[in-house]
Write a structure and sequence with these properties.
Elements (H helix, E strand, L loop, with lengths): L1 E6 L3 H10 L5 E7 L3 H11 L2 E3 L13 E4 L6 H10 L3 E5 L6 H14 L3 E4 L6 H11 L6 E11 L18 H17 L3 E9 L10 E8 L4 E9 L5 E8 L2 E6 L4 E5 L2 E4 L8 H17 L8 H20 L3 E2 L5
Helix pairs in contact: 1-7, 3-4, 4-8, 6-8
Length: 330
């Protein structure tokens, strides 16, 4: 089995540790947290050796894959160091807070001959996979417009100070709203050429926005809209709608995938997965195992980096109050 070390043994790392139990190719052998007591509690529950510093994972010969669930601003540093140590990487979204860092991470893995997979979860959950497969049939004709929304409790129990400053890659959009952006870009099947945006702190007095509205101009002429709202209620809205020439697809992660056509709604069979988050993380690990075996990436570094380029453009657009072109990967 392939040994996994977790850099950042916190809230979502526990989801990964549970998922690893269902993927026989991997075994958790180590986990690091800045608090050794916390790391020890984590490994007592899920297995492996505890470390107080993620860098120590890179010296552990049993670790072949490093899972990075560190604060966003540390993703690039850890991923590059892991690649230089000959380790494969699964890094939680966002890939990094800047496109430049994303490029550096990909270059380090390419130079080292190691694999890097970005955990853009929406591309691995059953409802999204079902919607993507249906759109790929072309039954509704070309895509013309899409809207995607995430509204959720912002100050939830796992919120940390680094989520609340720009220097550490904080804010609702990079932390959670990126899921809505990713769903839309992936399901539309087109890159984004330009972004217009507004951002604000509508619910929390903090240094980074809790609310963002993005208007997207896609490379092939379609338009899109993303709303990312971190508010004070526990009710979550997690919805994407893709409008095509001859109908639309509506995806609700708390419900079903519906095809709307000729005034009728059809629910896709076998597109509901009550434990979609855990199952999606399991599929991420299955995808990484396939990549290590020679398969193409399920989420390319370029695709993950494109989302960051969109967010960078949105930040500029909100400041300049005009449409901003999205920077290309190359």
């Amino acid at each position: 089995m392939i040994g996994v070390g977790i850099a950042g043994a916190g809230h979502f790392a526990a989801v990964h540790a549970q998922a690893l139990r269902a993927v026989p190719q991997f075994r958790l052998v180590a986990a690091a947290a800045s608090d050794l007591t916390a790391a020890g509690a984590f490994t007592a529950t899920y297995g492996g050796r505890p470390y107080a510093d993620w860098r120590a994972l890179l010296d552990d010969p049993a670790v072949a894959v490093v899972l990075i669930t560190l604060p966003h601003h540390l993703h690039a540093q850890a991923a590059i160091a892991a690649a230089e140590a000959g380790k494969h990487v699964l890094v939680e979204k966002p890939m990094a807070p800047s496109l430049a860092e994303c490029r550096a991470m990909a270059a380090a893995a390419r130079q080292a001959g190691t694999q890097i997979l970005v955990g853009q979860l929406m591309r691995f959950v059953l409802p999204c996979l079902a919607a993507r497969a249906y759109l790929a049939t072309g039954a509704l004709g070309p895509v013309r417009f899409g809207r995607s929304a995430m509204t959720k409790l912002w100050m939830e129990g796992n919120r940390r100070p680094w989520h609340l400053t720009a220097e550490t890659g904080g804010g609702m959009l990079l932390t959670a709203g990126i899921h809505a952006l990713d769903r839309l870009v992936w399901l539309m099947g087109q890159d984004v050429a330009a972004v217009a945006a507004m951002s604000a702190n509508l619910f929390h007095p903090q240094a980074v926005p809790d609310t963002d509205l993005l208007l997207l101009r896609f490379a092939e002429g379609a338009l899109g809209e993303v709303t990312s709202i971190g508010y004070r209620d526990t009710t979550m809205v997690n919805v994407t709608e893709i409008v095509c020439e001859a109908g639309s697809v509506r995806l609700d992660l708390s419900g079903a995938v519906q095809i709307m056509r000729d005034g009728q709604a059809e629910t896709l069979a076998d597109a509901v997965e009550p434990d979609w988050m855990l199952r999606g993380v399991e599929r991420e690990w299955q995808a990484l195992a396939a990549m290590i075996g020679g398969a193409k990436p399920a989420v390319s570094a370029q695709a993950a980096g494109h989302l960051i380029a969109c967010i960078e453009a949105a930040r500029q657009a909100a400041t300049l109050r005009r449409e901003v072109a999205v920077q290309a990967w190359d």
